[in-house]
Amino acid sequence: MKYLKLKNNTASKFMIVGAGLTLAAFIIMAIFGPMMAPQDPSVQTLTARLLEPGSSSAAGVHVLGTDALGRDMLSLILAGAQNIIAIAALAVLIGALAGTALGMIGGFVGGRLGDVLVLLTNMQLAFPFFLLALTVVGILSPNFWIVVLVVALGTWVEFARVIYSETVQIRQLEYIQAVKVMRGSSLRSIISHVLPNVMPTVIVLSTFAFGTAIVVISGLGFVGLSVPSSSPDWGQILSDGRDYIVTAWWLTGIPGFVIFLLVLSVNLVGESVRDGLNPDSKR
Question: What is the pLDDT of residues 206-242, one digit of tens each?
Fold first, then answer.
């Protein structure tokens, strides 16, 4: 039994290390992707269309093949990483800041303010967020900041609800009550006492929210509401390959696997961060 547990722990560590390295590779792709692309992702070469992975053309070797317009798939994947990861990171940052601030204020002050916050989060959760995102982006027409703000709109709710619940518990602690008795300001109590206590939760929620944001952004790209760009994002690449799913599997298989791999690595890193910050959560 001890050997089995040791074996599982070793496998778990390898998975976490692998997820961390994979996530680091995606971050490098997001920063240097366009410069790393072996070919110009915007150049269309119809004579080299639908080449299988590993094939060659006059433009060079296509490691991941080419799409229906003859564009190099590896170059498209590398160039598309920048937009999708940047949008997800900014959306999670904005959602985390807004949701954490509202959750701490609503939980600490309580009363009607807390009730209003809970009501707002319940109302938003009652409506499918992806439909809301489709409606807003479709009406306003997609651009970088519109997509960022729409994804952030769906991200803040989870932060607000969880941080609100934690803040309600924290404000009952004796030293918080002592600060209130001494007429310490609520703002100072929130910044000095509540924020440090909820930060581990914020960090963990951010990792999982990032994976969700990647899926939402890819979904918007899949239905044609991606950010206008010289190179399509992963969701749009996936959508473009639907008509060739039988004859050219790599057009859907490669971008789908890339999205899956990024979300999986983020979630595994999030699990590791959660266990590191809260050892009691380990099974």
Answer: 988 999 999 999 988 888 887 776 667 888 888 888 8
Lookup result for tokens 């366009």? 34
Question: In the chain, count of helices (H) and strands (E)?
Answer: 10, 2
Instruction: Map out the domains of the chain as residue ranges.
Output: 84-281
Closest CA to 87 of 200, 235, 191: 235
Q: How many CB atoms lie within 10 A of CB 110?
A: 15
Looking up tokens 């109590």 gives 189
* CA-closest candidate to residue 54, choices 74, 25, 81, 76: 74
Both structure tokens of 240: 């473009």
Could you tell me the end-to-end alpha-carbon distance of the chain, in angstroms, rounded to an integer? Answer: 15
Number of residues written out for the chain: 283
Residue 206 identity = S
Give the per-residue pLDDT at 40. Answer: 84
Name the token pair of 71: 């564009």
Can you tell me the distance from the alpha carbon of 100 to that of 161, in angstroms, rounded to the nearest whole number?
9
pTM: 0.85
Q: For the domain made up of 84-281, give the CATH fold.
A: MetI-like fold (1.10.3720)
Closest to 217 (Cα-Cα) out of 73, 58, 105, 84: 84
**Two structure tokens written together for 183:** 């007429």
Residues 133, 150 contacting (CB under 8 angstroms): yes
